[in-house]
Amino acid sequence: MLRETIMSPPEKMQAILPLLQRLYPKAHCTLDFADPLQLLVSTILSAQCTDERVNLVTPAVFQKYRTAADYAAAPLEDLEEAFHATGFFRQKAKSIKQICQTLVERFAGQIPPSLEELVKFPGIGRKTANVILGNAFGIPGIVVDTHVGRVSRRLGLTTNKDPVKIEFDLMALVPQEDWTDFSHQLIWHGRQVCMAKKPRCTACALLPYCNFGQKQQ
């Protein structure tokens, strides 16, 4: 049985970050996209849906709707049909249409590379905004999805459950230039090792630094 190491969150992060970088050197966004608009659409469609399913749906969507003006002008029923397989398609269609209408009216159809502007759009919170900024514009951001939240709490990097509070806790621990890569690495770790059910604690390289994992031994 491992003895739990008493370390502060900053001390843990110093040990964890290089491990994650070594374990997941090619961690990246698993949504398929060719430009910021495609990533925005894919990210909204990925809510309560797997990236794999979204990637099956979006090729036909991106072929039909190439610009923000295309989505803005499309009948809502057509968008609902196009998004149907991703679940919650009515709300997703409504959000994407409204966002694209605003893009056309206020931003000449282009996505503003600004978190402050993006979170003003319906259906875009800090998580979606940071996905877009980090992966389409190269602007670092911490993305707190269910995996990042779960793994961060288990590791003892945060005690919060609110995604925004977790984001700010992690921002204080991770160098800014690593924010986007760290998010991908934690997401991949959550998918492959630190699952919600039946986490593979005994096979986890982060076990010496994990409050949750050590209590399972």
TrEMBL record:
The keyword tRNA-binding does not apply. Its EC number is 4.2.99.18. Binds 1 [4Fe-4S] cluster. Its cofactor is [4Fe-4S] cluster. DNA repair enzyme that has both DNA N-glycosylase activity and AP-lyase activity. The DNA N-glycosylase activity releases various damaged pyrimidines from DNA by cleaving the N-glycosidic bond, leaving an AP (apurinic/apyrimidinic) site. The AP-lyase activity cleaves the phosphodiester bond 3' to the AP site by a beta-elimination, leaving a 3'-terminal unsaturated sugar and a product with a terminal 5'-phosphate. HAMAP family: Nth. This is Endonuclease III. It comes from Desulfobacca acetoxidans (strain ATCC 700848 / DSM 11109 / ASRB2).
